[in-house]
Amino acid sequence: MLVAGTTRTAEIDGISAAGADSDLLVHTPSADAEIVTYGEPIRAPVVPVSPSGCPTPAVVTRAVKELIGLDVTVVDGGLAEPTGAPTVTVGARPGDDVREQDPVSTAPGALAAARKFGRSIPDDEVYLAETVPGGTTTALGVLRALGEEPVVSSSLPQNPLALKQEVVEEGLQASSLDPGDAADEPAVALRRMGDPVLATITGLLVGLVEGDTAVTLAGGTQLLTAAALARHAGIETTLPLATTTFVADDDSVDLRAAARELNVDLTVTDPVFENRDHPAMNAYVAGEAKEGVGMGGALALADAAGIPMADVRERIVTVYDRLLDGRESPEPET
Amino acid sequence: MLVAGTTRTAEIDGISAAGADSDLLVHTPSADAEIVTYGEPIRAPVVPVSPSGCPTPAVVTRAVKELIGLDVTVVDGGLAEPTGAPTVTVGARPGDDVREQDPVSTAPGALAAARKFGRSIPDDEVYLAETVPGGTTTALGVLRALGEEPVVSSSLPQNPLALKQEVVEEGLQASSLDPGDAADEPAVALRRMGDPVLATITGLLVGLVEGDTAVTLAGGTQLLTAAALARHAGIETTLPLATTTFVADDDSVDLRAAARELNVDLTVTDPVFENRDHPAMNAYVAGEAKEGVGMGGALALADAAGIPMADVRERIVTVYDRLLDGRESPEPET
């Protein structure tokens, strides 16, 4: 299940690399949903790339979907632009800048509706994934509101942590919150300091656990934040998280310690992108993007299905070439 | 692709068997989409059955999906109740009673948006299906407005043709249309005498053909009406239609003659339900339901994949039992 949505926090200069420029970021989640579903954008006007040309991790998830036939359900976690992907509605609306006083007024409703939806899903196993530019900043905001250790990675090679902290401090002030004020109140933390995607994911996570569906968090520190939110909602079961080596090796975070603290079991999969010199992969090796759109979960599923990583890389090239077919190829700066 | 939506025409007494009573009909398309997607209702409060207890053809399509792994995309063709199935939006809204003057004001917009969406679908092959209670009456209205031969089947064992004709005559009068007045104007026929599902299907059909995707119409006389609409939109290529023996053997219509007239190639698949004495199938043998939710297309795909019909029937029983698990089993009157 891929939750796709937006927060205007992403428009702050230097926060996110999930779009070629700040005007295009708003299309990224809609395009990601289409790329995973159809293999290419249908209604979205862009193929999401970072400012340096690094393609969206949706390419990786789509490649694995083509290899092992994943069933994908996209949930609208506050999309701001139309998508041609089929979506489930839980009432989430685009999130405002966390520096506003009440940026995610739909968070409590989306949390409740997603929880109910998650509880009713009959599947035995679900991987939960996200696409929301600016999502690590809102994750930081939520962790601070909950009073948890702030552990967030970045889609940029240099994690702009000082900027994120500044944004979050401003948000806490605007919301009249001190760190820890929203402990045991995930809906408050999400509404005041989060984004609609994280609210939706947290609702799904809690509902799926309650409905006895095995859930794996497929992503990096945003999904780890969903685990923290679930703890504050009273969920005690061990939660698995499947991510990439790019997040696990990120020097700006200690993912393993944070996972241990939250009783989260880590699966880290290395796609060995350095073995293939290709514009679809080089920027990842240089530290960009790292995760997103369920990339780490998709790689773990491919691995579990016995697909060699060389085959995954080959398919990534195929998906990438099809995506860029007829478009000017972005020039990665490595 | 399953287009799911509503028309208030279905509320006219005696028009449709696609719900246990007229209050429940409005949930049928939302529930059908969920049954095909998940195997059971998620948000919809009912399992759609006819007044006599005949289960929705969604059971058959779901059974085939489980056997051969169909990819299903649900398009919102004017749903009046929430669905937990992921849906694509083309701007269709619930249709009013065709006896109103302008019952489907969203038809031209949905037709255009669905056409654009259909053109952008990268798949090689698509089966188009519908779920809309009352849809054969609106199909009759559209055929009359186009000036085509009126050929419509029914979900009831006795096709209430006199009632449908009366409803359609009233609708033509309310819209100040004589038969044939909407020739070569599918948007007018759909807006004044149709329903939002048929508008969406016609748009998809035209767009898919224009986008060089192979399309099969998966259904009965409503899908045949979509072929007629496509002819009036200038589509000349031969169109395949896959339906059930229940429609092909319906004495109230001459499906073969109508198909020939429209240059439609018929595939008729017999699930041989009389070989299995079971409440999921007996009512079909007695002439109820006949088609819908892509049943005929699903059966054709199962057949083409080499699945014996006995296996399809066995899986129908599994899906049916799971659906009725914990609910009072409807008592079919055969």
Automatic annotation (TrEMBL), chains A, B:
> What CDD domains would the database entry show?
DMB-PRT_CobT
- GO molecular function terms listed in the Swiss-Prot or TrEMBL record: nicotinate-nucleotide-dimethylbenzimidazole phosphoribosyltransferase activity
Q: Which domain of life is it from?
A: Archaea
Q: Which InterPro entries match?
A: Nict_dMeBzImd_PRibTrfase, Nict_dMeBzImd_PRibTrfase_arc, Nict_dMeBzImd_PRibTrfase_sf
- Name the family the entry cites: Belongs to the UPF0284 family.
Listed name of the protein? UPF0284 protein SAMN05216388_100517
